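batch_manifest entry 22 of 60
target: DUF3283 domain-containing protein
source organism: Vibrio diazotrophicus
requested by: lab member K.T.
priority: normal
notes from requester: please return tokens only, no post-processing; we will run our own comparison against the previous entry in this batch. if the run fails, retry once and flag.
--- input ---
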Amino acid sequence: MSFNLALLDANEKNKIELDKQASFLIWKMKQAKGGPEEITKHLTTLTSEQDKEWFQQSVDKYKRVMGVM
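--- output ---
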């Protein structure tokens, strides 16, 4: 099954982008190419509390999935 992401509303597109960013930052931590300070730095750039919450949930999810503490 395929999905056309261009048809999603702006809020859903933003959620997907935040999820991708969280995944990348956790991957960098796993590869020892970045640290937890990058996550903190990224959180400070987000203005919406909803975006911060969604990003943090994604970070927690990918830490669990990738086995990063």
